[in-house]
């Protein structure tokens, strides 16, 4: 049997990743969230059928439609086989168990607007506050983003065994507590939306600042996070929640710098040294537009402030022309809203841009002495950078070596090694 060509294999992998979330969402809508494993079985059976039929490279003209058609056919077969042993989704059970209405019901549920509705239901189910955050992340990556167990383990820096346990516990909790497969409404929507946005934010952040040893950026994670956020905006009621647009702005403005963050050798490029001609101006414009759309309402969220910081960087003609005083003010507001060691560290770093390197060194050591910031790689790298700017090379090298020892990222290690080498030479 002829193996798929590299181009065909890439197309198939992309399609599987892109369509998996859509298919498992619509199948869960039919079978009920208590039968999530059944939906995943039909999904896997559909993907295996595609691999078998497409193996010789005879990929259909509309492969996404082909996958949905096969998934629907396999769902009908599964319903006929299991209807005496299982209960399906409460509002579908009677319709699916009747030969008179089963086919019509599936035809209706597989319509595009119903698929999008099912994906929204799946988002809110995966990010249910009854589930621990690590379970929410794993379930979102598995069911909505089509990630395999090894891919999830790699993305979340843990073992496949741990991911399997998290998924098992999450599914058990969904089943035992009979969590609804719905998009909440009224006050419940606002409370649940916080959890959804946090998962999307964490997903993007892991992609943009990858914790993997050998990857600077996981674009697949970033793009999935952006896709899920865009899906939220397609529901009319979501237009009343400005924080969705603020998060979209933040992600667009960061994603616009993808190509400039890594050089031709795969090495990390810091913001000051990035070629701004490589920044995606269309994506920046879209991010600014989303930020403007998020300006309605009476509350300012952390997403608004982080997006405003990203916008200041994005619109500056050069690193020197960056509005550091505005950025400092945004960080002050952010620290009041969401106090954290990372924000305090960033405030000290920005101090170096507004008041000079010695001011930053003083602020960083003050944080260290007060115990208000955890000593991590970024902390020591920042100290090293500012000591280098004051001409104190020996101290700079010591702190950069400390940062080098603490980071896991190969790209960050390489960047620090270059700086250390430059100082020593």
Describe, in plain words, how this protein is organized in 3D.
The protein has helices spanning 6-31, 36-54, 63-82, 93-96, 102-109, 112-126, 133-144, 149-155, 160-176, 187-208, 219-233, 242-255, 258-261, 281-293, 302-315, 324-337, 341-355, 357-370, 377-389, 393-406, 410-424. It contains 21 helices and no strands. With 425 residues, the protein is an all-alpha fold. The longest helix is centred in the first third of the chain and has 26 residues, at 6-31.
List keywords for this structure.
425 residues; mainly alpha
| Dominant shape | elongated
> Topology as H/E string?
HHHHHHHHHHHHHHHHHHHHH
- Stretches where pLDDT is under 50 for at least 5 consecutive residues are none
Please summarize the sheet with the most strands. none
Share of residues in strands: under 5%
Beta-strand segment tally: 0
Rg, nearest Å: 24 Å
Helix content: 55-70%
Helical element count?
21
Terminal residue distance: 58 Å
Average pLDDT confidence is: 87
What class would the helix/strand composition place it in? mainly alpha
Short description:
By secondary structure, this protein is mostly helical. The chain contains 21 helices and no strands.
Secondary structure topology:
Elements: H1 6-31, H2 36-54, H3 63-82, H4 93-96, H5 102-109, H6 112-126, H7 133-144, H8 149-155, H9 160-176, H10 187-208, H11 219-233, H12 242-255, H13 258-261, H14 281-293, H15 302-315, H16 324-337, H17 341-355, H18 357-370, H19 377-389, H20 393-406, H21 410-424
